[in-house]
Amino acid sequence: MIPRPHCVASGLASLMLLVPLVGQTEPPPGRLLASQCAQCHGTDGRAVGDMERLAGKSAGELWEEMLEMKYSRDTGDIMHRQAKGYTEDQIRLIAQYYAGTSSGGGLDRSEKSGEHDDD
Amino acid sequence: MNTISRRHFLKLIGASTAVAASPTLLNAQTGPARRVVVVGGGFAGATAAKYLRHWGGGGVAVTLVDANPAHVSCILSNLVLNNALSLSQITFNYAALQQKYGVTAVQGQATGISGGKLLLANGQSLSYDRLILAPGIDFDFGKIGVQDPANLLHAWKAGPQTTLLQQQLKAMPAGGKFVLTVPPAPYRCPPGPYERACLVADYLKKNKPGSKVIVLDANPKIIAEERTFTKAFNETHKGYVEYHPGVIVTAVNAGARTIAYSENGQQKTLRAGVLNVLPPQKAGKIAFDAGLVPAGQNWASIDPLSYESTLIPGIHVIGDAQGTGQPKSGHIANAEAKVCADAILRAFAGVAPDPAPTTNSACYSPITANTASWLTAVFAYDPNTLDPVTGKGVMKAVPESFGEAPAATQDNYEKMFDWAGNLFGDTFA
Q: How many Cβ contacts (< 8 angstroms) between chains A and B?
């Protein structure tokens, strides 16, 4: 097992607390950060080809995968390198953002806040 | 070689050219839409136009101006040289941005900026609340003594030049010299010249025995993926690549295919079978004309929180033309465009830019016709280190995130098409 500064359970607990109330003018938290995954994982995480689809994935799953790569000593995989570039707070925001996107069509701006499929 | 990844990639290309018209879901708005004009429809400009509408909906009217009806991607364009791809497979028009996102695409040559308007060569002018310039690079032919710039073959802006280089390579007699010059950093696509040397060497090995790639590098050493390309030059393509660092090119006659240069203080000349010169680079002309490049500099100075010019408010510069020191590549241009689009939408809403933006760079480089390497890094805003030119904070690579592939592999070659397919889609479709 890989040593982590946070256990997954406590990370998830803080995920739940971070669900924001999106105002009229502030963009949704995590949107800009999460968009930086889209170069490889598709706009709003709707990837084409064999790339992993992030849209609609649970925040818990994304959080766990990213932390595993962040703290892995294996640097021979491109995502292990990428994961090391983000803080845990940033990873939490990214995970939360993609959990709020649907796996099918586009991101519905009006329904985005508060609907998360954490497991 | 035509595996699943490759098929998906080709499918995406097809999909992007035949988009069904679907009206964009617009936000309910009161008052007139704010206007953004984007100049340049490459990876930076197209992404900015798309995301302004994707995130801003009907609240923002976006016009994308490009001199051409479609963009030819530099990414993957070296694969046209060895006939792995055709130019049409890496050419993207703006139909999807128009139909799916409601961007207004205008084909025209931007000639200047005057009184809050962008002027076009046809006499038209476009008013804006914010202007984004994404003009890419221009070449500095004078610095290397190019006698006939019109004949110079760089193929460093993909398009007709790429086809011309492919044809010259094909026509080169066996035993010939393919001479490739690498400009001083920073230039567009740091690993690109070394990747090109590898692919041409691989092609020569199979098709033109006894030929050689001669790399004349202005830099003191290989500046990207040093381990990967050193191994490729010395082992994988042994005998087919001659690498010369620290070369100063002094004269180029493109028509005669001759080049003069100094190496270790010695003056030398070469006659090439194919002369592929990558000239020194600077920001696209409009950035200079608009007064966005500080005196004595080559790139536009901007604030990395918003990509707004530090010299002229209301004008943003993204992609290869800006001078933050982030690598000049299509992938990171796309990343910068999103930071810029987000900051502009925030500004329209009266909100400050995100105080901690990130960008990232990821790219795959083919080393042979069926293997590739990769290079990647995440960049984070550092408010405590100030840029000496702009006085703003800087984008810094997070050290642990910066790395290259342990080896060039077939698996990476396949993944390269998934990477490119998604990047193309996120930018143009």
A: 121
**In the prediction, which pLDDT does B7 show?**
56
Nearest to B79, CA basis, from B368, B273, B274, B360:
B368
Q: Do A41 and B422 touch (CB under 8 A)?
A: yes
pLDDT for A101: 85
Instruction: Give tens-digit pLDDT for A33-92.
Output: 999 999 999 999 999 999 999 999 999 999 999 999 999 998 899 999 999 999 999 999
Cβ atoms of residues A115 and A100 within 8 Å = yes
Amino acid B19: pLDDT: 39
Strand-pair partners of B403: B376
Same domain for B154 and B127:
no
A39/B362 touch (CB, cutoff 8 Å), yes or no: yes
Instruction: Please answer yes or no on whether A48 and B402 come within 8 Å at the CB atom.
Output: no
A116 to chain B, any CB pair closer than 8 A? The answer is: no
Interface test with A, best of B47, B422, B427 (most A CBs within 10 A): B422
Give me the DSSP letters along B38-82.
EE--SHHHHHHHHHHHHHHGGGEEEEEEESSSEEE-STTTHHHHT
Structural domain containing residue B271? 141-279
B 133-152 near A (Cβ less than 8 A): none
pLDDT, position A37: 98
Question: Does residue A7 belong to the interface with chain B, where contact is any CB pair within 8 Å?
Answer: no
Q: Say whether B31 sits in a helix, a strand or coil.
A: coil
Q: The CATH number of A8-16+28-103 is which of 1.10.760.10, 3.30.750.24, 3.40.50.2300, 3.40.50.300?
A: 1.10.760.10
> Residue with structure tokens 């073959």?
B153
B264 pLDDT higher than 70? yes
A25 pLDDT above the threshold of 60: yes
What percent of chain A has a predicted confidence (pLDDT) above 70? 66
Contact B362 A31 (CB under 8 A): no
Residue B25: pLDDT over 60: no
Cα A49 to its chain centre, rounded Å, is 20
- Look at B19-28, B123-132, B242-251 and tell me which has the smallest mean pLDDT: B19-28
